[in-house]
Amino acid sequence: MNDSTAGHSDGAKANWWQRLSGGLKRTSSTIGSAIAHVVAKRQLDAGTIAELEDALIRSDLGLETADVIATELRYGRFSTSITPDEIKGVVAAEVEKALTGVAQPLLIDPAKKPFVILVAGVNGSGKTTTIGKLAAKFRAEGRSVMLAAGDTFRAAAIDQLKIWSERAGVDFIAREEGADAAGLVFDAVAAAKQRGIDVLLVDTAGRLQNRTELMDELQKIVRVMKKVDPSAPHAVLLVLDATVGQNAMSQVEIFQKIAGVTGLVMTKLDGTARGGILVAIAAKFKLPVHFIGVGESVDDLAPFSARDFGRAIAGLDA
Questions:
Q1: C-alpha span between 290 and 98 (Å, rounded)
Q2: Spatial distance between the Cα atoms of 181 and 218, rounded to a whole number of angstroms
Q3: Burial of 295 (0-12, 13-18, 19+ CB in 10 A)
Q4: CA–CA separation, 180 and 182 (whole Å)
Q5: What mean pLDDT, rounded, does the chain reach?
Q6: CB within 10 Å: which end of the chain, N or C, has fewer?
Q7: How far apart are CA 20 and CA 18, in angstroms?
């Protein structure tokens, strides 16, 4: 690697760190002010630790992780005159520990052509935007990509996906609004196979997990896909909106049952003080977290790093 490349990747990394820590600012401020309050009392006793634990639970970190952090503070080697950064260090380390097992890249198997990625999630979770960003990322890696507009319920979703396909310079397949989504997906897999496409990204209607007919349709899409390629889909990504907090837990549970979710993408971490929900989800479901998003632009979706997330959520520097 020559120096200019190294410099560029360091610059990109620094830029992403700024976006991530800026994006998690609302979450880290909630935790930070609770820590400041504890430290101001000048003593680390049962009462102040309980207050801190409450603040961590309010940030949606989950009972399990909040409890581990509280226990660490209770029985760790800390004197009563603890500094805010020492407490933040404990939070960062425990969050990183909780997330290390799930921080996994999304691997595209070149032997599977097309590598079919089914993308699911409720309306407004950032699903279509995420597909557009992934298309741009795969194109940049030199792969050929096709987008399938499987959300046939809304003309706006079809149009939005078409714009993303043009922006990323990738193939696009759609039908008119109201067309049979499973039929479209069948055609998309067949066409991608025929054209030798590397990655096929399939959008699906933004399902509320309590709408049975939409959930049935999702199962039908999976069944129909297998008629063209028995091994498809090769990945099922669930896009979650961080701002919904605890509601994201039930989404994971139901989509996992219906569509066999293989990995998660969490968006809109910049819009919430409850970014800790990712930690709670990781602790409960142990599903890989492939990407996180902290904004609207193409560069705002990045591979997930447990260490970076832990430090950003605790409000520490990179």
A1: 15
A2: 9
A3: middle
A4: 6
A5: 89
A6: N
A7: 6
pLDDT value at 49 more than 80: yes
Q: Which residues is 240 bridged to in the sheet?
A: 266
Look at residue 2 and tell me whether its pLDDT is greater than 70: no
pTM: 0.90
DSSP states of 49-89: HHHHHHHHHHTT--HHHHHHHHHHHHHSS--SS--HHHHHH
Q: How far does CA 291 lie from the centroid of its chain?
A: 5
Contacts of 40 (CB under 8 A, 6+ apart): none
Residues 253, 264 contacting (CB under 8 angstroms): no
Q: Rounded to 5 degrees, what angle do the CA atoms 112, 117, 122 make?
A: 170
CB atoms within 10 A of CB 169: 10
CA-CA-CA-CA dihedral for 127, 131, 133, 138, to nearest 10: 150
Instruction: For residue 248, give the H/E element and its range.
Output: helix 247-259
- Tens-place pLDDT, residues 168-216: 999 999 999 989 999 999 999 999 999 999 999 999 987 665 677 777 8
Q: In the predicted model, is pLDDT for residue 284 greater than 80?
A: yes
pLDDT in tens, 223-236: 999 999 999 999 99
pLDDT digits (tens, 9 = 90+) for 266-280: 998 888 888 899 999
Pairing of strands 145-148, 199-203: parallel
Residues 6+ apart with CB under 8 A from 229: 112, 116, 189, 193
Three-class DSSP category at 262:
coil
